[in-house]
Amino acid sequence: MPQPGFDLEAAAETIRTWLDEAERVLITAGAGLSAAAGYDYGDEDRFRELFPALHRLGLRSRYLVGVPLPPELWWGYWAVHIDDIRFSPEPNPLYQRLRSLVGDKDHWVMTSNVDALFARGGFDPDRIFTPQGDYGRYQCTTPCTPTTFDSRPLVAQLLAAYDPATGAVTGPLPSCPNCDGEVEINVRIGPEFVDDPYLPSSRRLQDWLVTAADARLLILEFGAGFNTPGVIRWPGENLTRRIPHAGLIRINPTHPETPADLTGRTLSVPAEADQLLDRLTVPHPAPDPTAAS
Ligand SMILES: [Zn+2]
Predict the structure, then answer these.
(1) Strand positions, DSSP E, 148-256
(2) Beta strands 133-140 and 128-129: pairing type?
(3) β strands within 106-207, DSSP E
(4) Of residues 275 and 285, more confidently modeled
(5) Rounded to two decimals, what is the model's pTM?
(6) What residue ranges do the domains of the chain occupy?
(7) If you classify domain 8-280 with CATH, what class do you get?
(8) Cα(167) to centroid(ligand 1), Å
(9) How far is the CA of 196 from the centre of ligand 1 (A)?
């Protein structure tokens, strides 16, 4: 539920107005959006269902970064996780509703999420910038090359060698097609991250923002907290400062606060994305033709 006392309907009305007035929309999103869409990395029930062997080892959620696991279990985890979150073919209803919300407006997406849910929800892949990488690619850990590789065949191969009872994959572990060394999924975990695949979209987004300098730009930010505020949250605030006609709407159930120096150009919405979209994507009631004018 939204915070007690918060008038979500009034906020939705303001957002409709701001959206109508906007010439361009930049949707920015963090992990909170995918969590609201049903992909909550902290969901312990789903974790137990997908990873029974890891659950028996005492692990409870997908926040596994830093947990030392033998490579057979590590790759078993990645294969199941990525297959679930990145390669499920169905579009996600929440992302589809978000897509319908922006309609024909000139828009871009910038997200720290690496699950490609925006593209699967109908957003133009050429207008999505994912600075933290993509589960759909993998890279050399060294890295010996800036080339990254399609992870779909890798995941399929791993799943074929995966035993749910043990959580492990059998047979040869993934290796770099170039140097035969270790590989990892192409997401920003450490300084070895290869960002080459994301540079072209970064440049296109920067160009779009340069031409937005005099435009009414609306930034719609969903679920970007303080895990990596330098990726989504602070850049959105800085853009709002830099572009005189920009506005920022921050949808976040736990960290909705906005900077004091931007008062008047920001709207803070302490609610989950799905709660807000329930209001925004419900059609307005048609005017009653029998009402006296
Ligand atoms: Zn290599």
Answers:
(1) 149-150, 162-163, 168-169, 183-187, 217-222, 247-251
(2) unpaired
(3) 106-111, 128-129, 133-140, 149-150, 162-163, 168-169, 183-187
(4) 275
(5) 0.92
(6) 8-280
(7) alpha beta
(8) 26
(9) 15
